[in-house]
């Protein structure tokens, strides 16, 4: 296994378990503990994880913790895996809009550091996560919503209008063939709608519990999403209905090594 492949496997383990141990990784990957420690130091330098005694933990914000609300703890593993899977989509993009919500925050954990990448966001937790890395981060102005720590309102939407995106990556409180992409708050829905209008390609991140669900505020029709990244718990019939509307589907999978070790 090449070093870069081994580090990707380490990130997959972090995405599933949140905490990894040097001794276990050395045994599972058939390498020395020193090799694993070097991998961990490299991943920490790049901002993906933090070293801990005997191993490493998932990177958290330095200036603030993720917004503390009940939804942050729901479907946590699935959100981490979706974030990891979606992070690879940014590789060829120069200007990206990254939306609000805990799944987008998980993507920010795993986003590769690139000085030539500009990320525009309405999420203060996302900005805090990426602000510690060599990535150009632009935070929209506006009124701060306490529940999401997102910025909304005319100032945010005026700032958003000045950008063109190669890629818009948004979360969703619901996505269905009938009601399309939906959000809990009208202000956040308007932000996402504007980002979709100004993006060449739109990705929606939604764990399986959101697929087929509908929240009060409509963002855009389902066909506005070019790609949905979800997980294996998403209802098959709804995924088929979304495909019929032209939405590509990708399902995040559990890392093989972690799954084998736990089974």
Task: Explain what this protein looks like in three dimensions.
This protein is α/β, with parallel strands linked by helices and 263 residues long. 38% of the residues lie in helices and 22% in strands. The protein has helices at residues 3-17, 22-29, 33-45, 76-87, 102-110, 124-130, 154-160, 186-197, 236-244, 256-262; strands spanning 19-21, 49-52, 55-58, 95-98, 118-121, 136-139, 143-145, 150-152, 167-171, 174-176, 180-183, 202-205, 217-220, 227-231, 248-252. The protein has a seven-stranded parallel sheet with strand order 6-5-4-9-12-14-15, sandwiched between helices. It has a three-stranded antiparallel sheet with strand order 1-3-2. It has a three-stranded antiparallel sheet with strand order 10-11-13. Helix 1 runs antiparallel to helix 4. Residues 60-73 and 255-263 have low confidence and may be disordered.
**Which CATH top level class of the largest domain fits?**
Alpha Beta
Residues in β-strands, percent: 15-25%
**N→C terminal distance:** 23 Å
**CATH topology of the largest domain, anyone?**
Rossmann fold
Q: Helix- and strand-based class?
A: alpha/beta
Which term fits the overall shape? globular
Question: Could you state the order of secondary-structure elements as H and E?
Answer: HEHHEEHEHEHEEEHEEEHEEEHEH
Number of domains: 2
The biggest beta sheet reads: 7 strands, parallel
State the helicity in percent bands. 25-40%
The tally of strands reads 15
Low-confidence stretches: 60-73, 255-263
Second CATH tier, the architecture of the largest domain: 3-Layer(aba) Sandwich
Tally of alpha and pi helices:
10
The pLDDT mean sits at 84
Strand order of the largest sheet: 6-5-4-9-12-14-15
Please state the CA-atom Rg, rounded to the nearest Å.
Answer: 18 Å
């Amino acid at each position: 296994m090449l070093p870069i492949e081994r580090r990707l496997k380490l990130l997959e383990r972090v995405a599933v378990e949140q905490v990894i141990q040097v001794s276990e990784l050395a045994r599972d990957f058939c390498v020395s503990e020193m090799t694993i420690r070097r991998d961990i130091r490299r991943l920490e330098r790049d901002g993906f994880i933090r070293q801990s005694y005997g191993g490493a933990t998932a990177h958290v914000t330095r200036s603030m913790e993720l917004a503390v609300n009940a939804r942050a703890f729901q479907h946590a593993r699935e959100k981490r895996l979706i974030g990891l899977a979606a992070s690879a989509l940014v590789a060829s993009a120069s200007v990206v809009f990254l939306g609000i919500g805990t799944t987008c925050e998980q993507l920010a954990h795993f986003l590769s550091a690139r000085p030539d990448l500009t990320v525009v966001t309405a999420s203060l937790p996302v900005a805090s996560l990426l602000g510690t890395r060599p990535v150009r981060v632009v935070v929209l102005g506006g009124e701060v919503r306490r529940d999401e720590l997102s910025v909304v309102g005319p100032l945010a939407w005026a700032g958003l209008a000045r950008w063109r995106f190669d890629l818009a990556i948004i979360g969703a409180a619901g996505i269905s063939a009938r009601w399309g992409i939906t959000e809990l708050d009208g202000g956040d829905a308007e932000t996402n709608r504007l980002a979709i209008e100004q993006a060449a390609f739109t990705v929606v991140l939604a764990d399986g519990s959101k697929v087929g669900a509908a929240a009060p505020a409509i963002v855009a029709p389902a066909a506005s999403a070019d790609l949905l990244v979800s997980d294996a718990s998403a209802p098959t019939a709804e995924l088929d209905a979304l495909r019929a509307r032209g939405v590509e589907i990708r399902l995040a999978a559990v890392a093989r090594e972690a799954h084998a070790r736990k089974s």
